[in-house]
Design a protein that fits this description.
With 274 residues, the protein is α+β, with helices and mostly antiparallel strands. It folds into two domains: 107 residues, no CATH class; 162 residues, Heat Shock Protein 90 (2-Layer Sandwich), CATH 3.30.565. The chain is built from five helices and seven strands. The protein has a five-stranded mixed beta sheet with strand order 2-4-5-7-6. A two-stranded antiparallel ribbon has the order 1-3. The termini are far apart. 26% of the residues are buried.
Length: 274
């Protein structure tokens, strides 16, 4: 009877854990939604503009055909081809953004895929930034990127690692925003993301020049439900889940370096297996 009760408690705990993870996942998807809308608007604007331009060129082309001016027809045809290539390029860009969003939101199979890590990181920093800007127009930050081309493509679970990068970036932007509110115009909020290929692993650093993490809290930051954000602004699961994804899920490391008053750097280390 005790065993049955224990098994039932374990089942309930697992169900609760699954629900919490799903809540965190949906919260991070919410962060992305506004950023995705902004990112998708740019290529759609290009598609619309070049489509309008091609309509005008086709009218002109018909007129030149009627005049028998075939030299001009060839020039116009070349312009049409060039514009069509641009429409195709920006259409594919919009398609890639939608696919990235679906990948983030779909049920995670836990399957590793061979993915370009730098592209993933670059995508998430823009989506995260524009997502925050959409929620708060006063928010601003300098973004610095330094991607090592040697990192290239390797095997990892893209939804999971994307979620870690998103969480670290969201925390970094939050930290610099708080510091800006405290220090005012003399302070320039800056968030940096860099990657580098090391022997046997890839390193990704997410840094901010916020207030840093007090020394007495360092040991607690990867614990479930620990958060320094005001009530209702953080689940306290982001870093805990991120730690599990990198360590248990990928056999890697998630470390933190911080200096009070100067900023924080989170370091992701993922073993490379192609």
């Amino acid at each position: 009877e005790a065993n049955v009760a224990l098994e039932q408690s374990l089942a309930e705990l697992k169900a609760a854990q699954t629900q919490l993870i799903q809540s965190e996942k949906m919260a991070s998807l919410g962060e992305l939604t506004a950023g995705i809308a902004h990112e998708i608007q740019n290529p759609l604007n290009f598609v619309n503009n070049f489509s309008e331009l091609n309509k005008e060129l086709l009218i002109e082309l018909n007129e030149e055909i009627d005049r028998g001016n075939y030299d001009e027809v060839k020039i116009l045809a070349d312009s049409l081809i060039s514009n069509e290539e641009k429409i195709s390029h920006h259409g594919k860009r919009a398609d890639a953004i939608v696919k990235g969003m679906l990948q983030h939101s779909r049920t995670n199979t836990g399957q590793k895929e061979i993915i370009d890590f730098n592209e993933l990181a670059d995508e998430y920093i823009r989506l995260c930034y524009h997502g925050l800007r959409a929620k708060d127009k006063t928010f601003n930050s300098t973004i610095k990127t330094d991607f090592d081309p040697a990192v290239g493509r390797f095997s990892f679970v893209p939804q999971d690692v994307g979620r870690v990068i998103l969480n670290l970036l969201t925390n970094a932007f939050y930290a610099v925003d708080q510091q800006k509110k405290k220090l005012g115009d003399n302070y320039e909020p800056t968030v940096s993301i860099s990657t580098s290929k090391k022997k046997g692993y890839v390193e990704c650093r997410v840094s901010d020049n916020g207030n840093g993490i007090p020394q007495q809290l360092i040991e607690k930051i990867f614990q479930p439900f620990f958060t320094t954000k005001p009530t209702g602004q953080g689940t306290g699961l982001g870093l805990s889940l991120s730690y599990d994804i990198i360590t248990t899920g990928h056999g890697g490391e998630l470390k933190v370096e911080t200096k009070e008053g100067e900023g924080t750097t989170f370091i992701i280390c993922i073993p490379v297996t192609v």
